[in-house]
């Protein structure tokens, strides 16, 4: 049943890809990485069922997407309203970051530099030596050239579900138009599902993976 649904979703997305190409999506007018993968992912995130309030539908739709490090088309629709959310990972006992988390930040930095108007949220609690994941991530981004005024810390979460729920409140308060979740390749699909449920189908959610 799931395989049939996935095939149908991919067929719809492929048809929409042809339509999108006919309405002028081109690198000359947009900043995103426009490829068949990013267009199909974009269609799925908005029209393919990924904004459904039904978790089963969201799971199937999310599973039909292809994970990529390329910037989602969602960011071109409203860069200032689309938030980039970097998800934390456990710190070392001295409060320094594990290589996996640095990889997530490097991927987020690429997207953030491509879209300098997009706000950034660092999400993760679990403090070590008095430093939360969110604070460690913020400090790294600032040290690598990001304006601190762009960054909001969400430093209370202890799980992916809490990342999604706590960040969803920030997104609602600022009336965000979309969200791009950045995490590791083995984590981002689950994170996108949790975020899609947390925002209650109110805004589209896209994903970017870190290098593995």
Main β-sheet, spatial strand arrangement: 3-2-1-4-5
- Rounded to an integer in angstroms, the radius of gyration calculated over CA atoms is 17 Å
CATH superfamily: HUPs
Treating each run of at least 4 consecutive H or I residues as one helix, how many helices?
8
Largest sheet: 5 strands, parallel
Fraction of residues in β-strands? 5-15%
What is the count of structural domains? Answer: 1
The SSE string, one letter per element, is HHHHEHEHEHEHE
Q: Share of helix among residues?
A: 40-55%
Task: Considering the chains and any ligands shown, give keywords for the structure.
212 residues, alpha/beta, Rossmann fold, five-stranded parallel β-sheet, 8 helices, 5 strands, globular, disordered N terminus
Describe the structure.
- The protein is an alpha/beta fold and 212 residues long.
- It has a single domain, classed as Rossmann fold (3-Layer(aba) Sandwich), CATH 3.40.50.
- Helix content is 47%, strand content 12%.
- A five-stranded parallel beta sheet has the order 3-2-1-4-5, sandwiched between helices.
- The radius of gyration is 17 Å and the shape is globular.
- Residues 1-29 have low confidence and may be disordered.
Topology, pairings included?
Elements: H1 2-22, H2 36-47, H3 55-64, H4 74-77, E1 82-87, H5 99-114, E2 120-123, H6 133-143, E3 151-154, H7 160-173, E4 178-183, H8 188-198, E5 205-209
